[in-house]
Specification:
The structure is a homodimer of 197-residue chains. The first copy, chain A, is mainly α and 197 residues long. Helices cover 73% and strands 0% of the residues of chain A. Chain A is built from 9 helices and no strands. The longest helix of chain A is centred in the last third of the chain and has 28 residues. The termini of chain A are far apart. Chains A and B meet through helix 8 and helix 9 of A and helix 8 and helix 9 of B. Chain A binds a DNA duplex (30 and 30 nucleotides) through helix 3.
Amino acid sequence: MPRTTDGDGTPVPQRLLNAATRLFAEQGYDRTSVQEIVEAAGVTKGALYHYFGSKDDLLHEVYARVLRVQQERLDHFAGMDAPVEKRLRDAAADVVVTTIDNLDDAMIFFRSMHHLSPEKNKQVRAERRRYHERFRALIEEGQREGVFSTATPADLVVDYHFGSVHHLSTWYRPGGPLTPQQVADHLADLLLRALRP
Amino acid sequence: MPRTTDGDGTPVPQRLLNAATRLFAEQGYDRTSVQEIVEAAGVTKGALYHYFGSKDDLLHEVYARVLRVQQERLDHFAGMDAPVEKRLRDAAADVVVTTIDNLDDAMIFFRSMHHLSPEKNKQVRAERRRYHERFRALIEEGQREGVFSTATPADLVVDYHFGSVHHLSTWYRPGGPLTPQQVADHLADLLLRALRP
DNA sequence: TTACACATACCGACTGGTTAGTCTGGCTGT
DNA sequence: ACAGCCAGACTAACCAGTCGGTATGTGTAA
């Protein structure tokens, strides 16, 4: 039996990534020592450096996972067969729910970019930009069709909405008065209302 | 002649605070050593610890300054003699312009809260809450008067707007296609449009 | 006016503690 | 016996904060 799953059923790399995600979100990247991570994962440094090249690498994996998931979900909603208002609303609400479901990821995402090495940072920015552009395309489509106002450049509208998504990790607390879905519906509604012609 | 101003006309505490603000924004709090700060300010550690109790204290000063300035500006706009739509629009646009004019502050503000000591953190949160509530009161006033939609709770609307304000430090770059005032007008416009009944 | 005391402003070497990453070696299944 | 998997002691670097010391200005009293 390989050691990769001893302790519980989760493979060691996963356990390390989960522990790192939680700790990075709770304490910040710099305040989290590699020692803490391996202890939380129930292994030692040898294991960590066997699977990951550096502490920085671990952080990069968090970004890669978030970006992959969000891009897939956006593609799903944007590619549906429905009026653009509905596709935008669904996509906008979905990213809110997904973000709330993974608040730790969101916390890290917008707080720790500058801890990535320059080339990893660049890579993450490029990926994020693709996401941004996909979202913007949806808005521009609606603007061309005349169902969305053209008063504000689509770029700015995207930043407006994602600002609020980003901000979720600052104020949303599970157990608050609103469920993730209710928050998502409200925020998507605000976006669509702002876009009314 | 006291040493407080030798070198140039700026007093040493100011020079230290300016250097710290810039470096914290550029590299993050943990990545900035006290040595770097004192070198950038043209003094030594002795001077820093003469005026400030700790590195953490320096960060706290940044927060205190931002909170004081923003609260004063909000009070000014909210207290004017004008319809609530205009007061809200002006306040919403002003915070955008002020934030862009001090992007370093904004960068630090939302990225470094967790680097403050627990009691300083609590203090900052309390101050920030007062600000949030003042802004919310404006929206609620408009909702009572019937000029703003009540579809979304005022609290959420505030977080929606300030999300986009925080986000500015992530995407806005001086020299971009839009002036600070143009960005502010657009973002205030989006807010007001979302609030149309 | 001079002399002495005292405070403020600052210098910079030093200390105690922490950290990311390395490396040697052992275990386990095939 | 070989290869992937991992343990844990070790190292080299770094950093916040301290502390004894120096310089300059200000008040006071002879």
